[in-house]
Amino acid sequence: xxxxxxxxxxxxxxxxxxxxxxxxxxxxxxxxxxxxxxxxxxxxxxxxxxxxxxxxxxxxxxxxxxxxxxxxxxxxxxxxxxxxxxxxxxxxxxxxxxxxxxxxxxxxxxxxxxxxxxxxxxxxxxxxxxxxxxxx
Length: 136
Prior knowledge:
Largest sheet: 5 strands, mixed
Number of strands: 5
CATH class: Alpha Beta
Number of helices: 5
Radius of gyration: 15 Å
CATH architecture: 3-Layer(aba) Sandwich
Strand content: 15-25%
Strand order of the largest sheet: 1-3-2-4-5
């Protein structure tokens, strides 16, 4: 059964990679502990955004829609959403102490952080910088 599970996981990951490569809109992935690391590995040569949030966080409920809109406009990016209440170990790895937090990662290194409540323009500019890194 475990072999089937690994095979199914590999198939899913291959399909997801193909979809991401052909997507014209930014791709948003809700992370689990397992899928987070797999997705980062698949995107290791790209710039990726990681959005740390919680359902109870008021500013997160305002930043989330603005981030989603900016991702649709950006195109060539992957956004990994991490609910800190469900995936605490990932939040601990990146020393997330404030919500919302958005990390920009390039080649598996954090290059920039956007922390706290931000307006739509600031979020869009942050996403645009990440998108330009993928194009360049």
